[in-house]
Fold this sequence. Notes:
Elements: E1 5-11, E2 14-20, E3 24-29, E4 32-35, H1 42-49, H2 54-58, E5 80-84, E6 90-95, H3 97-100, H4 105-114, H5 118-131, E7 140-145
Antiparallel strand pairs: 1-2, 2-5, 3-4, 3-6, 6-7
Amino acid sequence: xxxxxxxxxxxxxxxxxxxxxxxxxxxxxxxxxxxxxxxxxxxxxxxxxxxxxxxxxxxxxxxxxxxxxxxxxxxxxxxxxxxxxxxxxxxxxxxxxxxxxxxxxxxxxxxxxxxxxxxxxxxxxxxxxxxxxxxxxxxxxxxxxxxx
Length: 148
């Protein structure tokens, strides 16, 4: 079983994000979406090496074949940790590929700007992915960075 994980830790005004596998973390700041984690699929490794384009990777039979995952005994290094300084209004989305493979950046920006309640936004994202045909694990957590 190849299990993925994505996590975030907020400490001393800095948020640290890490992931293994193909679950992802996204920072939504205003009208921009930034993917903070890297997929550890064979298809993404082929994109990184220049052998595939991102479009080819989306349709590749290796899109869901992971080379790095929880419990991988041959993983020479751990997860990459990505720090960032959250700003008021930022939203951090931690999600499985069953959700992110069915959403666009526009979907993420629209929900973040329309829904102040993180749980309501997370529920809407899950329903959107399911309505678009996702049959994979569809999960997410939304973290809101607002002023105290």
